[in-house]
Amino acid sequence: MTKNEKMTEISNPSIASISVGKMIEQLSAVYVNALKMDRKISELPTFMLWGQPGIGKSQGVKQLAKTIQKETGKKTYVTDVRLLLFNPIDLRGIPVANQDKTLAVWLKPQIFDMDTSCNVINILFLDEISAAPPSVQAAAYQITLDRVVGEHRLPDNCIVIAAGNRVTDKSVAYKMPKALSNRMCHLEISVDVNGWVNWAKTKGLDGRVIGFLSSRPDLLSKFDPSSEDVAFPTPRSWEMVSNVLLNGNYANANDCYVLICGLVGAGAATEFCGWCSSREKIPDVNEIANGFCYYIPQGRDTLYSTVMLIRHFLETNYQKGNYLDNCISYAKRLPPDYTMLLFTQLAAGGDDIKKSLIKNAQFSNWLRTHGK
Predict the structure, then answer these.
(1) How far is CA 126 from CA 57, 79, 81, 129, in A?
(2) Assigned architecture for domain 3-190
(3) Degrees, nearest 5: CA angle 305-308-309
(4) Residue partners of 280: CB distance under 8 A and separation at least 6
(5) DSSP code of 284?
(6) Which sign does the torsion angle of CA 11, 16, 22, 23 carry?
(7) What are the tens digits of pLDDT across the range 140-185?
(8) How far is CA 139 from the centre of its chain?
(9) Any residues with CB less than 8 A from the CB of 210 and at least 6 apart, and which?
(10) What is the pLDDT of residues 87-115, one digit of tens each?
């Protein structure tokens, strides 16, 4: 490492924090609207996604591609380029002699070999850009602004997105040169439990992982750059826990405790396996919604998990049948603190469910006597 390549501290106090879900929503709106109005997406800025390891930056870009494809009907391909593994010449191409052997011609790198059809959108994803040495970052200058490297030009149907860890994350990362940073729109990716849970459901992750993190949202991400732990909870590591459970067909999470511990650390693994063991004590949310459940669980963790399961169930089912009325009736039988917790969570869930809650006769009666 040269003197000029010395790692230094960096912070991002001047940029806003945004969840992965919100990032997908806003970026897809920008790109989709531009495409529908037949404007050049090549004129849009390169977006730079900052965030801790495992927070979901790469997954977010893949989901963004799916959203653009769904909204526009255009096939969307992601070219994932890990700049950490590149040298400057890898971006420009290999020089060879021309036919007359009088000039050097640079062979086009494979990453620039993209489909230029009008029914295709390409996403060039420059991942781990902050981990690339400054010499490679310098070679990325032209890509991010001018969309060229040497003699090679990106097609007009190509979107450029970059991502990387912060130097303060204590991962392999270099301070980004001002000349490069000023060529991009910077977004700080933050943890969003509700967004991750919704994504996990559509992705088909193990229900035990979803249920546990719904009741213990503080354990979705426990990244501490000052810690020497090699295994710690992140959205990425919890997805791997789900893959282990599903592919190993483990009915009992304790049977693969060592593997879970190796992914999220001993503390989170112990709590997760303990929650799975007590899961049988948690009522079936479908029975609660249908008015057939009279069992009230005991214990703080079990009660909290029950409340969170009801909350997430009602977020998408509150308008169906008598589900909301039955869940409110059940909630009124819980200890007062947990009844209040559920109603507070539902009221904060969105305008539609809040209006339905306020219009409910049972809730109105409860509010008159317990509102204070």
Answers:
(1) 11, 8, 5, 6
(2) 3-Layer(aba) Sandwich (3.40)
(3) 85
(4) none
(5) P
(6) negative
(7) 777 787 787 766 788 889 999 988 876 555 554 556 667 777 878 9
(8) 28
(9) 197, 200, 201
(10) 666 666 555 566 676 666 555 666 677 88
Specify the long-range contacts of residues 245-248, CB closer than 8 Å, at least 24 apart.
245/206, 245/208, 245/209, 246/205, 246/206
CA pair distance 111, 90, nearest whole angstrom: 10
What does the DSSP 8-state code read for residue 327? H
Question: How far is it, in rounded angstroms, from Cα 88 to Cα 177?
Answer: 16
Give the predicted TM-score (pTM) of the model.
Answer: 0.68
Q: Which of 279, 282, 242 is nearest to 259 (CA)?
A: 242
- d(C-alpha 175, C-alpha 164), whole Å: 11
Q: In what order do the strands lie in the sheet with 17-19?
A: 17-19, 184-190, 46-50, 158-164, 120-127, 75-82
| Residues 298-311: tens digit of each pLDDT | 888 788 888 888 88
Rounded mean pLDDT, 258-285: 88
Helices (H), 231-335: 235-247, 257-264, 266-277, 285-289, 300-317, 323-331
Non-local (6+) Cβ contacts of 141 within 8 A are 179, 180, 183
